[in-house]
User: Fold this.
Amino acid sequence: MQFDSFSAFIDMGGYGFYVWLSFGVTTALLFTLIISSIIGHKRVIKNIAQRSQREDKLRQVRTQRQKQDKELKAKLSKEVTE
Amino acid sequence: MWKWLHPYANPEVSYHFAGKLLPWLSALAALFLTIGLVWALAFAPADYQQGDSFRIFYIHVPAASLSMGIYLGMAIAAFTSLVWQFRLADASAAALAPIGATFTAIALITGSAWGKPMWGTWWIWDARLTSELILLFLYLGVMALHSAFEDKNLAGKAAGILTLVGVINLPIIKYSVEWWNTLHQGSTVIKLGKPSMSVDMLWPFLFCFVGFILLVTFIVCIRFRSEILARNSIRPWVRTLVSEHIQKENNNAV
Assistant:
């Protein structure tokens, strides 16, 4: 141990402000980077999930419309033949 | 000879491989950084000229060399992607850019906080400092290009060209302390001949350096996975993976 007391450790031989500024900024930046990377990963997953849901819904609507069209056509052709 | 590497060209295999590395990397990085930083702050002897202010060295030097190392890695990835149309290389280049930018910012800020007590100024337009600042702008430009295009392949190409042009800055940073008269001191750690650093100062540095490298690899893995998913979002394996993930999340919420 290079320091006699905790206050000497904080003081860093008079350079405390600069040393702790450097270590503090480094920790803050690295934490921000890690947290934003993890949040970004979750966001990517959420976006893909949303998009696939939207596509599923569109597909459902399309098949329903096709079904309705077919029914209408059948009805019309029946009326015409009558 | 290189056959074992081929499966990793598959995005799905790479995604799961990077996922398996994550817990190991985070644990090892935490271990090395804790040992290294505690040693550096409390147990390493003070410098005979600079006193305790020299402890900034233990984050400044690893951050600065990583800022260049990450750029080199990004440039190699960009080159591979441009020449061989290797899509995963684009993903890794995009994953590396924000990490490199962060480390460049750390190198600049800690350097500034070290310069104030030693040189009497926070900033000076000296060759080493200016070229490192340009490196930060290059990183920001690459990041901007990656996010400027909806089409990720196009974005990768544009960012890759900027990355390769910017490689010229690396030797300028490295040799700036030798080519020009600068305030910045020369290299301390790597010097041929006599070791210029005492051993009880060198060991904590090595721990910090390895710890920072592990931390970079950890963050690269996280970001690389996101990039793979975003670039393969229409593939069936991504769709099943995502729906499983959402299901698990819903179950946890209930």
